[in-house]
Amino acid sequence: MTSSTLIDRNVHDRREVLRTQFQSAFPFRHLVIDNFLSKDFADALLAEFPDFERGNARNEDGSLGGKSTVERIRELGPAFAQLDDLIQSRGFLDLVGQVTGIDNLLYDPWYFGGGTHENRHGQDLDAHIDFNRHPMEPWHRRLNLIVYLNHRWEDEWGGSLQLHSDPRSEQNQILSVTPLFNRAVIFETTEWSWHGFPPIQLPENERGLSRKSVALYFYTTDRPAEELADTHSTVYVDRPLPDRFKAGHTLSETDVQELRVLLKRRDMHNQRLYRDVSNLTRQLEEAQAALRAGPIGKFEHAGWRLLRRLLRR
Fold this sequence. Notes:
- One of its GO terms (cellular component) is cytoplasm.
- With 313 residues, the chain is an alpha+beta fold.
- The chain has helices spanning 3-6, 9-13, 15-24, 39-48, 78-87, 90-100, 253-293, 295-312; strands spanning 30-33, 56-58, 64-70, 106-107, 115-119, 125-129, 140-148, 161-164, 174-177, 184-188, 194-197, 211-220, 235-236.
- Strands 1, 2, 3, 4, 5, 7, 10 and 12 form an eight-stranded antiparallel β-sheet that branches. Strands 9-8-11-6-13 form a five-stranded antiparallel β-sheet, with no helix packed on it.
């Protein structure tokens, strides 16, 4: 099993063309590659794709949500075990490095945030940039590689991947990519690689379908100085109000429901930020306590208390 047999031959043959396309892509560096995997291999992955209920699909309140993920893909079956072997092989990493110009790529054995992703009717994803450092290793996140596994998908159903120039700007420009079967999207992970997808709106007779993909993330030990930024988690931009919401508009029941969804999502983003701040504060307090517990820390702590007393006089 090698990248030359599981990856479509056309990808190998066009690596120089793909590299040029990646470097010149708008709104940021990316590639869209149809028939990325060999057909038999893509079919085998879809056949082993986990049931929705098997994945992590629970909301914070314990209810079943609209998105399900499985990070431990190797356990899903022989095809996914092959995929796991493939993406950590030097041949595959070098191939992806050649078409993107990013050398010395690293495989993530934890699949942190990656693995299988399944989204049902009504699910969406606000425009965002991804966390930029690996949570367990001193690595920089550099590339997203997403392979879609949907034999049937129409643009009017929503759910297309959207690449944004700047979702905070009124001049934001969007490139949409339909999540078709065996289509791969590779894009850089930077402070400007904004992406997401609009709500999935399936016709009533198609509600049995879902948006299936495999998300793979790659890292390096360093990155160009112009791309460096402070370590951060995922940064979201809340979806703006639809254009129909303007002075004089009479709210329908659909409008009210949409407003509730937007407000709930904003609250969830705020709660996540509060949790991040709370966790950082706790870690800082624990570090300070550990310092005070040591001989030097106790001396330093006593010195600070004495100084504060003097300053209050």
